[in-house]
Design brief:
The protein is mostly helical and 324 residues long. It is 75% helix and 0% strand. Bound molecules: fe (ii) ion (FE2) (3 copies).
Length: 324
């Protein structure tokens, strides 16, 4: 493989960031109309404006570097390794799903810019450092704003449901949680790619044990409620429908992307448990609510731990790929 410079790597990551923003924009164009909650609607509309600026700023930086935004039509082909991008196309059909998807997508964007910033720092590229810092801060703020509105999202999603149906909604969310934990297991077993970043490998190993326990607890709760994991039907978040199959075919191609992607995936799980906890609470199911809060906290902690490996991941990339 020809040696590439760190600057070339940065240009590649900027191209990915541009595709990520294009998909974000497609999602943010639709989001305000289906927010189901006035405050969420306002938040999405505000971020639509920010996202337009992100797309333009990243494109301008690509031009400065004599590069062009990727013209590949196929989104999957464009953003190799950033599988979460496919989420932007899912077209979530309830305010709750939309909020969870948007929350995890913002985490993916945040990861992409945090990793880009670290690369640019190592290359001494101040302009890209500034760009990544500025946009990353807006992605983080957007994720935080969504997290302040889980109640609004749940209420909007449940508005149409009869009180008797709330129990069924809890089961749907539990089934989704079960499916998500299954996907998490696949992700966390991505061992070989982690070899060059031992910090990340050990975070994955630790969370793998937790994840098995999460799935067991969710399974147990489903049987207590007289139900089982969904085999065929899609649950409330439709991870079943997505099947994450395509998604995992696009296995992140570097430990750096794997570290970014895992961060977003943990955020997806955290968001799903926030919805489950609140739905269970409204259904008067305190036991499920408590379980969801407890697991959700572990997902958030796992996301934080993953993000603590980003320096090591970028260092490994700089060493291996660039020979720096
Ligand atoms: Fe953005
Ligand atoms: Fe964003
Ligand atoms: Fe997890």
């Amino acid at each position: 493989m020809p040696a590439t410079t760190l600057e070339d790597q940065i240009t590649k990551y900027l191209t990915d960031a541009h595709s990520i923003e294009e998909q974000a924009l497609a999602q943010m164009e639709r989001a305000p109309a289906m927010a189901g909650d006035p405050e969420l609607g306002r938040i999405y509309a505000q971020h639509r404006t920010e996202t337009r600026e992100h797309e333009q700023d990243v494109r301008a930086e690509l031009h400065r570097r004599g590069a062009e935004p990727s013209t590949v039509k196929d989104v999957a082909g464009k953003v190799g390794g950033w599988g979460m991008v496919l989420f932007a196309r899912l077209n979530p059909d309830t305010p709750g799903k939309l909020a969870v998807h948007a929350y995890s997508y913002e985490h993916m964007e945040l990861a992409a810019y945090e990793l880009l910033r670290r690369m640019a720092q190592r290359a001494g590229d101040e302009r890209v450092v500034e760009l990544a810092q500025r946009i990353g801060a807006q992605e983080r703020a957007m994720a935080d704003r969504i997290a302040e509105r889980w109640d609004g999202a749940v209420d909007a999603s449940l508005r149409e449901k009869a009180p008797d149906d709330l129990g069924k909604e809890v089961v749907k969310y539990l089934r989704d949680a079960h499916a998500l934990e299954g996907q998490a297991l696949q992700l966390l077993e991505a061992g070989p790619k982690l070899a060059e970043v031992p910090e990340l490998a050990s975070v994955f190993e630790e969370h793998l044990t937790q994840t098995r326990e999460h799935q067991r607890l969710v399974d147990e709760r489903l049987s207590q409620l007289g139900s089982g994991p969904a085999r065929f039907q899609a649950g409330a978040l439709r991870v079943g429908a997505l099947n994450l199959g395509t998604f995992f075919k696009l296995q992140p191609d570097t430990p750096v992307k794997l570290a970014g992607f895992a961060f977003a995936f943990e955020a997806l799980e955290a968001g799903a448990y926030e919805m489950l906890a609140r739905t269970a609470d409204r259904a008067g199911d305190a036991q499920t609510a408590e379980l969801a809060l407890r697991i959700g906290a572990e997902e958030r902690a796992a996301a934080e731990k993953v993000s603590s490996t980003w320096d090591a991941a970028v260092d490994a990339m700089a060493r291996e790929r660039v020979g720096a």
